[in-house]
């Protein structure tokens, strides 16, 4: 009846399971289920994915007593609908299809944001939509707005598609209203969405410190494409910092980030353990941001003091191709450390027009990698230089040089 939510970042605590599964879905009209669907995500990095055909069964929430007036408590209606789906499905993982009809789910988060800032909450703020331990999920053609906490949070799910979804929250004074947070998920496609929120547009996670290490479920095989994002507080697309189960095989392509604090951000810290590897960014447009690309290894927030300080994350094989920006103050900032060096970074066709001219705008520390062809601004000396044909021009002898201007 009560689920404990510990070690996932932000708040911790307990709240009713119905909220834990599907918080405030008072405007939703139907659940759909199809047991036979198994999309092929085996090689999602290739980018060939197919949405599923129309499902076979329809579960209308109104038939279970749901009322979409923005005021009625529909917890019992959701519990009854989920029980009916489970009964027809039989034992095993629950499969769901959540398809909107261009409607809106409004989490009415203002009261939660206010009480959170006043430190007046006794319970964790609930995500607006949350799926747990489920598979074969499609969420499409719907608007999510004003979540008390994260908007869409699939946790330990497999084969998830999010398509044609709009996610909105005030870009200031709406704490932790991340857009989409894949958390220990495998085989996921996020496409054709507009996200403007009060925290990360997308944040890929897999557990926090010792809790994520113990659970041991990575986020892997994820494609994110054809998105427009805005985040004046955090980043358009983030990985971490809760990544202790590992994050790998992620492709981000055809993305526009505008009027934001950061466009791309990867963050971790000693104590996380796990890994971030095989991450590809292609065709990213950045418009008016403080930072273009940021990688940090000192994001030292922890759930408690029991974390393993010797649990060092591994960060490697990160590729940035076709990154174009204008009005960017710090185009690239890669902050590895002696404990957590960043290896296997590559840049190709990167051009960022600066907000104003400033030395050391491509900043590096403890990073190994390669630059192909000509990029602007000039890369840091930590990186090996190759021509457009992949021939070595100059090998770096200073991978551990720290060239950071914290006054920027």
TrEMBL record:
Lineage top rank: taxon: Eukaryota
User: What are the TM regions of this chain, as residue ranges?
Assistant: 15-33
The family classification in the record reads: Belongs to the glycosyl hydrolase 28 family.
**Keywords noted in UniProt:** Glycosidase, Hydrolase, Membrane, Transmembrane, Transmembrane helix
Could you tell me the Gene Ontology terms of the biological process aspect for this record?
carbohydrate metabolic process
Gene3D superfamilies, alphabetically?
Single-stranded right-handed beta-helix, Pectin lyase-like
What organism is this sequence from? Asparagus officinalis
* Molecular-function GO terms, alphabetical: polygalacturonase activity
Q: What is this protein called?
A: Pectate lyase superfamily protein domain-containing protein
